[in-house]
Amino acid sequence: MTISFPKSSHPTGLHFFTRNPHPKKEDHGDCGVRALSLATDTEYWRVKHYADDAIAQRHDGDEPVWGYKRYQTSYGGITRQEMTTTLNDMAKSDRKLYDWIYVSYKTVFHKNNLPEVCIADQDNHVVCVKDGAIYDSWDSRGKTKKLKKVIGVWCHRDMWQKFMNKHNRDLRAAGVVK
Asked: For residues 60 and 18, what is the distance between their CA atoms, to the nearest angstrom?
């Protein structure tokens, strides 16, 4: 279901809604889990369980690369590979997540440059974007007119096709990428 908002006055064209799916409303480096939870409409603790499993694979067994095993959680951040692994593992038990993909393309953080429902991969942060609005615990749109960079997006394959069709399957000609 697409929600229609009035035009945003922010240079990104995006609205911002404060949403923190963490049960205790804590905000501590778990942006990947928050974004996955909000974008896929999945419970926070379920996403966190799968993300923590993906992060545990980062270490080669006997000796952890950093810290103790109890600190190997999604609260310390999550890489692109771990986000993709988390989505793929969740898809094994939830068919609606089966066709989520990561698409790497460099663009700026603007409403017209993102699919309707996606997780935008910014530098050191990921954020859920739905129907022209950011859903996160803090506003990552930026405070200046200079738009932030986007490295890529996670979205459903159908959303990506719809986005490509909207731009006549040529992102360069549409001005989305340079």
From this structure: 37
